[in-house]
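Minutes, project check-in
Item: structure for the 139-residue chain
Input as provided by the requester:
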Amino acid sequence: MRKTGAAALCAAFLITSAASAEKAACPEREAGAAYPWQNLEPMKGDRYAWIIVDVDRTGRPIRCGVGANNIPDPDMRFLLCNAYKGDWRAPPAEAGDPDVRTLKRRTTMVGYEHQMADKKARKAWFRAHPEERPECYPE
């Protein structure tokens, strides 16, 4: 009886492993990049900021500043810049790039209306793209 249970467990594991191995890798994305279904146009209640980041050849942030924005709280702007310096990485420099590059990224903190629109668009996008796996696009 135990041999049958162990054999069934091994068979289930092998089938699961084979199915997992067949799945294609998730597409690579830049941290913070928009998902394919997201509307990038500003909506009522959204907050945005242009983040200007100096990066070294490896893509590691050296300095950060906040450009045009509608974030009224200076502490929030400071925390946003620190998040880029701590978590974000730019692509590595190409052969002809300078040692220090300046990059601009627009960051949007979406409001309620934008969240609801994105939620609806996500469902529609997965219906239209059944080959895509939701685990590749975490919420």
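Outcome recorded: Confidence is low (pLDDT under 50) at residues 9-21.
No further action items on this chain.
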